[in-house]
Design goal:
Layout lengths: L1 H28 L22 H6 L6 H32 L5 H10 L5 H14 L7 H4 L8 H13 L2 H9 L4 H12 L1 H16 L3 H6 L8 H6 L10 H33 L4
Helix pairs in contact: 3-7, 3-10, 7-13, 10-13
Length: 275
């Protein structure tokens, strides 16, 4: 029995190392001189240099802190929009009664199976006519309109786990629907909000396609677009500086995950979503 357990843990450790090797190699390569990056595949550099970090920070004609600021603006407003809009929508589906509720819920779930590329052109034409292209509005405003069906579904499942007697007791005390939502549902749903916040931040921070479509000026680029700028049209790439900035771009994701990770397991378990 112990031998089987040992083999299982050994296999998992090797599989983990294989999966982590590209990330660890990128971290190692960010400290290597440009000339030896692809000649040295070890995880411990034979030559150390820290120049890739300051050079990468100033490599483009815009300081990299500007790209961080742009990404933070888009990510923070997207998280806020998703939490507010999806929570209200989920509350309606989970606790309120209205005509054709099942139909609207099924329609909302169908959007999960709709590829983003299907609605890309109509959305672009709409935002172009609104004069929103080359602004952050196409990346932020849809989040305040309950665009993310996955978060609505997650919150619906979580809200359904809360006893309905709480609503009934509150109504007997004279609470309105909105008061029940803010005073009872929201305080009891922090795991669901935390889970939605983590995924929303992560998906927005790493989003490359949306900013690529809607942002034209380099001053408005987010971090993923800025990383792409390290690869020039002449195929002259600055890999060391690119790897260094890629490592720095992961730091906010790790920090956000560490802050909210305790909500993930509880939120997914309570909402009944399993892999």
């Amino acid at each position: 029995m112990k031998q089987n357990s040992l083999l299982k843990h050994l296999f998992l450790a090797i599989a983990s190392l294989v999966m982590l090797y590209p990330l660890l190699w990128m971290l190692s390569s960010s400290f290597k001189p440009e000339s030896i990056i692809f000649n040295d595949l070890s995880l411990w550099p034979s030559q150390f240099t820290f120049e890739n970090y300051p050079n990468g920070w100033q490599a483009l004609r815009i300081d990299f802190s500007i790209f961080y600021k742009n990404s933070v603006i888009v990510a923070v407003f997207s998280v806020i929009g998703n939490l507010i809009a999806c929570a209200f929508t989920a509350y309606a589906f989970a606790r309120l009664e209205f005509n054709f509720k099942r139909f609207w819920f099924a329609l909302m779930m169908m959007t999960l199976m709709l590829p983003y590329h299907v609605v890309l052109i109509p959305q672009y034409i709409l935002f172009l006519k609104l004069g929103w292209v080359n602004t952050y509005y196409p990346l932020i405003v849809p989040k305040f309109l309950a665009q993310e069906a996955f978060f609505i579904f997650l919150m619906v499942q979580f809200f359904k786990q809360l006893p309905r007697e709480l609503d009934e007791s509150a109504m007997m005390d004279g609470c309105s629907v909105f008061r029940i939502f803010f005073k009872i549902i929201v305080p009891l749903s922090t795991p669901a909000f935390g889970t939605a916040a983590i995924f929303s931040f992560y998906w927005t921070w790493e989003d490359f396609f949306g900013p690529l479509i809607y942002l034209n000026d380099i001053e408005k680029y987010t971090v993923p677009l800025a990383l792409r700028a390290f690869v020039s049209a002449e195929d002259l790439s600055f890999y060391g500086e690119s790897f260094a900035m890629s490592i720095l771009s992961l730091i906010p994701v790790f920090i956000f995950f560490i802050i909210f990770q305790r909500f993930i397991v509880h939120g997914i378990a309570m909402s009944g979503i399993k892999g």
